[in-house]
């Protein structure tokens, strides 16, 4: 289904409602899910958190690995979310923020009218506007969450730039051996924080990371790499039934 993202307004969307859903199958073919540093501590208990590089901008982006095979998200194959935690961005749909221009910080609240989460008035749905054309409390809450995520994304980008400026990222090829396959899977294009480079920082640089609260985030990232074994187990179980 194609998206149809349009600016939200009370004239065209007065009776529009949205429903909440834990069905995230729209991410079923996305092996890597972008995340923000502010959720690293929670996500590190379930997912390997690594970095990828934007081929156009050269910027590093933190992602949660949810699969070991291309185009397969092991967590989003059924309508029920199987984990205790999930990325903040999973709950954005069908709403989003879009900048009015590249040079401006002004944003529009948009809605994907083609989303299955969009509906007419029903018992379990939330209206976006009241009859007086004012934003509903629900829409205000959702807008605040979108603004918060947008701020987190900007801060995450700044942190990645800082770590990159200190040459702390290193490319890492992940080699995965699955039960049903003779040949291992090599996952390329992944970056991690280089512990050796981290330890070789000057006392001043290391203290700067500490004072800015970045060391716990870095260590959460490094500890999360142990969750790769969880993904391998989930992939082996998936292969037995598919």
TrEMBL record:
> What InterPro entries does the database record attribute to this sequence?
SapC
- Superkingdom as given in the UniProt entry: Bacteria
* Stated name of the protein: SapC family protein
């Amino acid at each position: 289904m194609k998206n149809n993202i349009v600016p939200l307004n009370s004239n065209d969307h007065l009776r529009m409602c949205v429903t909440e859903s834990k069905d995230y199958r729209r991410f079923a073919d996305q092996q890597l899910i972008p995340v923000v540093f502010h959720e690293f501590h929670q996500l590190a208990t379930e997912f390997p958190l690594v970095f990828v590089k934007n081929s156009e901008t050269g910027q590093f982006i933190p992602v949660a690995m949810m699969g070991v095979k291309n185009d397969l998200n092991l967590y989003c194959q059924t309508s029920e979310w199987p984990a205790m935690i999930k990325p903040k961005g999973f709950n954005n749909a069908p709403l989003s923020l879009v900048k009015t221009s590249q040079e401006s910080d002004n944003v529009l609240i948009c809605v994907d009218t083609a989303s299955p989460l969009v509906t007419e008035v029903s018992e379990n749905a939330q209206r976006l506007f009241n009859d007086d054309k004012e934003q509903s409390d629900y829409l205000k809450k959702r807008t605040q969450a979108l603004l918060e995520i947008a701020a987190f994304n900007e801060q995450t980008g700044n942190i990645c730039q800082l770590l990159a400026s200190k040459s702390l990222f290193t490319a890492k090829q992940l080699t995965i051996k699955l039960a049903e396959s003779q040949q291992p899977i090599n996952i390329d294009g992944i970056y991690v924080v280089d512990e050796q480079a981290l330890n070789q920082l000057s006392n001043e640089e290391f203290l700067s990371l500490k004072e800015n609260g970045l060391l716990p985030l870095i260590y959460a990232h490094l500890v999360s790499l142990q969750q790769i074994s969880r993904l391998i187990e989930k992939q082996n179980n998936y292969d037995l039934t598919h």
